[in-house]
Amino acid sequence: MSRLRYFPNRASDLQPLTPLEIPNNLKSSLLDVLTKITNKLKPVEKNGEDGLYLGTAGIAYMFYHLSKIPAFKEYHNKYLENALNYLQPALLVCKRFSIHKNDVPSFLLGNAGVYAVATAIYNAIGDGAQCNKYIELYKDAGKLCTKMHFLNCGSDELFVGRAGYLCGALWMESELKSRIFKVEDLYELCRLTVESGRKYAQQYRSPSPLMYAYYNVEYLGAGHGLCSILQYIMSVPGYLSSNPKDATDIKASVDYLLSLQDDEGNFPTAMDELGQERNDLIHWCHGAGGVVYLFAKAYLIWNEDKYLQAVKKAGDLIWEKGLLKKGPGLCHGVAGNGYVFLLLYRLTGDNKYLHRAHVFFEFLYTDEFQTNARTPDNPYSLYEGLAGTACFLADLFTPQTASFPFSDVF
Ligand SMILES: [Zn+2]
């Protein structure tokens, strides 16, 4: 039993007619998490590397996100000040890394993600000049990904490739509530990404009309795989309706991925697992915890019930097997899986899912979790560590607008 990747979930689902309230230890728990992070991870240059995923830019994002939560209004200015402090080491690192030109558009691991968050933070504090400076740097970075294969490892996925760049561009526009990028520039990146996937799929005779590889692995999950690439192309407003041929291939690829959902509700990590023993990973990065955002987007676009059913099925699996031993974080931890319930809550309005999200929060504070969960390598970071957990806890105060970072499909 100790070999399981997850803690068995012994909690009950919400009973009918039971009122649902915000857990009373939620606010104090979140404030404790923030104290831990600021005590243990200082905003100094050696902590600024590895972008939003592991570096101080991820902490800056977390404070920026918290500054927008009404329940923490009293700390609004303090959180923005912290965001600015944690941003600085990451910006210093970006200057050093801008010599490695081809990595610059990297959203989760490199410069572009740091520029995006800088744009939002400077906008929030009313520094228009700095905000514009980072918009320009973000746009400059985008010129590099107009070459189809600008990276040798794979140029289309979320962490370093075009999908990540698109994700950041859409996020910046939604944070600044204005059009920053030319529509034709975003469309060109979509077109290139579709073309790249189509060529790859033809060359390797993929059963999916679009397929991609990252370091020679045809990943399917949100981490480096097909699902997030499709999700961000589909998120560019108007692209599908003005490019019917691409839309046809995108939808067929979404449906192919849907056909891979197993009886339990999970998805294989990569194409080389098909017909083999599966990894059974139920994470955001690999498996059901991340693929759901694609199907939620598909449901919102095409309004076909099968996509919603796929998300619900994945949600039921995560309820059973999503209390991961790997830790409390977003990428492969309890908070990342907890966000699936917040997604389902927004899709359905059903309190059952909000209750499930609360249960995942409460589980983080059980002896069972505190004693037996692993501590991630980067225990305070946004994607592996407590900064991501803090975002999840904060979003429980505003479930109507909650979303996994950079993955709001609504
Ligand atoms: Zn992961």
From TrEMBL:
Listed Gene3D superfamilies: 1.50.10.10
**Entry GO CC:** plasma membrane
**Which GO-annotated molecular functions does the record name?**
metal ion binding
InterPro entries membership: 6hp_glycosidase-like_sf, LANC-like, LanC-like_prot_euk
Q: Which residues bind Zn(2+)?
A: 285, 331-332
The record's listing under CDD domains reads: euk_LANCL (cd04794)
Which biological processes are named by the entry's GO terms?
carbohydrate metabolic process; peptide modification
Q: Which SMART domains match?
A: LANC_like (SM01260)
- Could you list this entry's UniProt keywords, alphabetically sorted: Metal-binding, Zinc
Q: Which domain of life is it from?
A: Eukaryota
What family does the entry list?
A: Belongs to the LanC-like protein family.
Name of the protein in question = LanC-like protein 3 homolog
